[in-house]
Amino acid sequence: MERPLAVTGFAYLSALAVALFVGVEYGTVLFVVLMIGFILSLFSKTLRKKAVIPTVLLTSAAAVLMLLGYSNAKVKPIEPLKGETAEITAQICDLPYCQNDRYYYSLEILSVKNRTVPTDTKIIVSSKNALNAEPYDQIKAKVKFYADTDDTYKAYNIARNRMLYGSFDTKTEPKITHTDKKPLPYYALMIRKTMTDRVKDCLPPEQSGFVNALLTGDQTGITAEQKDNFRAAGISHIIVVSGFHLSVLSQMIMAVLCFLMNKRKRPAALISAVFVFLYMAVVGFSPSVVRAGIMQILFLFGTACIRNADSVNSLAVAAFVICFIHPYAAGDVGFLLSFTASLGIILISQKIAVYLKEHMQPRDDLSEPKQIHFRKFIKPLADGIISITAVTVAASVFTLPIMILYFKQLSVYAVLSNIMVSFVVSVLIVCAVIMLICSVSIVSFLVAPLAFLCAVLTDYILWAADFVASLPFSTIAVSQSFVPFWLALIILLSAFLLMFQNRKRAVKYYALVAVLTLVIGFVSDSIVKYDSVKFSVLDTGGGLSVIMTKNGKTSVLYCGGSYDRSNVITEYLKNSAVTEIHFLVLTDKKGKNTQYAETILKNYPIKTVEAYDEKSQSKTIRSLIQNSDDLILPSSDTQPLNQFHTGNDEIFTYKDKKSNAVLIKANGSKVLICPDGTDCSRLPEEFLKCEFLIVGGGIRHSDLINAKYIIISDTQENLPDYGSYAESPNRHIYATADRGNLALRIYSGGTISIRRENGWLS
């Protein structure tokens, strides 16, 4: 068996990723199936001789068994805390950060009053005010832990050592015990803090936020709009510290050390390996950083030993070590993207580059001067572009399944955007590091010109991301339920393709099957979803944005949320290829649930607008709603109930001085939407008899509604306020909770599905 390390490492990671994707609760079944497959493979002489299949099956079974053991030992014992308030004693284990006017602290639990929890349990707790505490100080406080809403990001959070989320109880003050003796990790955190503070001192806020993300992975200084631009442009990997960053930094250190040591590569490589490990400690040992660090260290050791490291084996070893220590790392999307991108670059980037170079050769009939001009000027530039293109295409192809499964979208111009920024990012990393070094040395006068250069490069990268993201069809939404099965088929066919001797001929049939199955999937999915109604509850923070879609007609029932999340609704409408709004409801006097109305009215033609309290709306909105084909202005609060027909469905809006709500009758089901402040006792009785409740904020007399399915639109820290909804065991509860949009689809036959649009719930 060739490359046993590679076979074992890849099998281990793949088994864990599949187990986490389908759910740990099915782990026992998966383990039994794999063991049966392993035993059966031993009866085949051919399979035993090659040993690949038995090794893969046994390794996969061992991986699933390790996952089950880790889950039972570390994860399940803390689940009873969810939704509870408990008194804890904990230690701060990371730097705090501020987001959305709240401070977040990473704590390692030392004890829980009247509870037993596993050692090394880490949680993220939010506070309205900053605490007078440093890393590794102890805290004794009451914490309200968030209720369980869904498991979409459970594996991702656990992989990042975020076992639980909560908020400090506002009725009691946390007690801080300062610790004088600090462990070694404390000093790594202080180095990171010094780095980020220095960058903030040298650069304006927008540029410093991006540079800090580039150097330390701290994304708190990057806005939600910028993150969306990076994702749409296909360059979100540049703000996650991984192999690209470590490679640039280690090669820079190697070059400096070789210059200082008179080109002695071996000691330079060993010192660089130590630097890589220290850098991993400073930025945090996240799975993607550890993967990149292990590979880089193995490469540097290979250089020191004057041996070429096998990149595939190095990657497999890194994956195995990480997943063996922490099985849930296989559910960290950053790690999976980093791993698959590296695998693609290793396996096919060179082949792509060779193919492109063969087709870039000058014609034989060119004159000698032109041949010289080509070799001297055009060829070096072309080789650089080809190299970047080959790496980008290779990484994009191999990360495609992860992008589809986790983000439900494809970046159409990813190759273009990577060509535009890859080299610039490399230069920016080097300049930023030199700037930091100069800021603490006798050559501090160089900080100003370096800071100016960093700002210019940063502005260019942010502009490039915004430019590419704004291009038509920059992203393609891939949210159809058949897609995971199609991906599984393609991966299985790829594995079989590797067994063929004449692969060139087989590739044609492979491509044909891939395209045909994809087309059939899209057509059949369209047929199945015909006449179904979809309610998208957007993750807009504190507020309510609900969009209803049926047979190509889009209705915006609420368009509110935090002031800084308007890009969520605009991106949703753009990615859904919406060209016209069929029906828009404006019910909120204060604008809390109509925060984004002006943006929608400016960018989309509206057929019908139902506007309550027109006079309380801004002058701009009052002007814009006059452009709609049909404007409904209820005359008074004495007739609070209005009815609107859209096809075979009915939309009822209720608005009086104290409450407003929307009821939709569609495909034999009732969906009630209640924003913050709704008094359910004032609603018509028909509103209360609904199967689905979408709620955004506190509503009064919610016990009058017996909906089986409840979707909460609110931030993570506010989830404890919805604890009463979980009291009924027959209820199914989901929440946006800063994790992405939720989609409720009701089919014409009454079948339903609820899932996260950037993940899979059902």
Keywords, separated by commas or semicolons:
762 residues; alpha/beta; OB fold (Dihydrolipoamide Acetyltransferase, E2P); eight-stranded mixed β-sheet
Largest sheet: 8 strands, mixed
**Share of helix among residues?**
40-55%
Question: Shape from CA axes?
Answer: globular
Number of beta-strand segments: 24
Instruction: Tell me the fraction of residues in β-strands, as a range.
Output: 15-25%
User: What gyration radius follows from the Cα positions, in whole Å?
Assistant: 28 Å
Going by helix content, strand content and strand pairing, the class is: alpha/beta
Mean pLDDT score: 83
- Taking pLDDT < 50 over at least 5 consecutive residues as the criterion, the unreliable ranges are none
Number of self-contained structural domains: 5
Distance between the termini: 39 Å
How many H/I helices?
A: 22
Strand order of the largest sheet: 15-14-13-12-11-10-23-24
Description of the structure:
This protein has 762 residues and is an alpha/beta fold. It has five domains: 74 residues; 101 residues, Nucleic acid-binding proteins (OB fold (Dihydrolipoamide Acetyltransferase, E2P)), CATH 2.40.50.140; 290 residues, no CATH class; 46 residues; 224 residues, Ribonuclease Z/Hydroxyacylglutathione hydrolase-like (Metallo-beta-lactamase, Chain A, 4-Layer Sandwich). It contains 22 helices and 24 strands. The strands form four sheets. It has an eight-stranded mixed sheet with strand order 15-14-13-12-11-10-23-24, with no helix packed on it. Strands 16-17-18-19-20-21-22 form a seven-stranded mixed sheet, with no helix packed on it. Helix 1 packs across helix 4, helix 9 packs parallel to helix 11 and helix 12 packs antiparallel against helix 13.
